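Problem: given the chain below (391 residues), write out its structure.
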Amino acid sequence: MPQDFQAPPDDPRRSEEHDRRYEAPLDPNHNRSRTVAGGVQGKALGGQFAVTLADRRTFDDTGAQPGTLQRRFDISYGRNFGDTFDLEGSYGYTRIEQAGMPSSNLRSYALAGGWEIGPSTSLQFNLGKQELDLNSVLNAYVRRRFTSGARIIQRWPNWALQFGFRHRESERVRADQSFVDVPKANDFDARLSGRLYGPVRLTLRGWWQDLRETANFQTDDPRQLLWDDKALFQAKLDGGNEKLAAYGAYTYRFQRNSLRDVEIGWSNFVFGGSYVFNDQWSGFAEFSADSYHVVGRAETGQDLDFFFPDSRSVALGLDWTKDANFGASASFNHFESGNVRGTQLTLSLRRRLSPDHDFELIIAPWRHDDRLYDLSSYRTTFLSARFTVRF
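Solution.
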């Protein structure tokens, strides 16, 4: 083969077989598949190209599913234009055939590129389209998808800032295949990260999804079942040295469905860290708290806020390692959420008896209390002894 051409390193032939028997009412699963694939990649016209072909055949020996033949063809080509601009395009085609059913076809198109605007500034962009002709589907399905996006990145010696945008569209055929809906959404995101002082880093990131056009819903209640807006904001601090590592983060999530008068706001705080006392002892601790602000009512008239109780949790851990052959650890977890609270203690002992033999003992008393429904409360102790032999 010429120097500029080479075959992909993947195994060109692969066979799989599954044989599983289940208790009723589950049906047995006995299917076989065979895949044959090949391709070539290399340099041409100043760029890099790749072509792959794959043939996959699946057989169900139980007769529950028809035999399936899937053929796939992919081609891609990319090229650098100088030192500042690159572009890559790809096309894929898949044909699916099943015994006694009409065939289906899938086509995908993609274009992506990058532009180094300056020494510290870059722009990335992409376009994508997918076409699905699912002739064997008799109810609802998505027949086309379209995506586009761009991202600009700015770097400084200790900081980086980026903004991103993505647009999505889907052509969805209704269940009776008499009409097509085209939901559209825009996603915006931003991220700022860098070093505040010494080992301490700060990361700020946010994301917002805006539903521009929705679908018509043929349900008893025709109001939309999609969120109009979804958003996230997070601020995180982390840092440490050879002995101490610490972190803290605040995350806020928001979802709104204006036609159903429903809003959900979720705030989360988490703080934690780990410390190495010496060559044998180390420990960690973490505290987390969640709170909700919910607007809206269920069809029964019950406020949705009832189903979103605030919660808190604490986790502590200690690890002791005498040497490579002997060690122990202990962890403690406590959580509270509305009427529910629980405590979990786990103790473990590890011993390597020889290079090929290991022994581990675990004792874990757990407690779960429900102050409103006492029937769901329980106390249990988990005991495990495991002996491992390597051959």
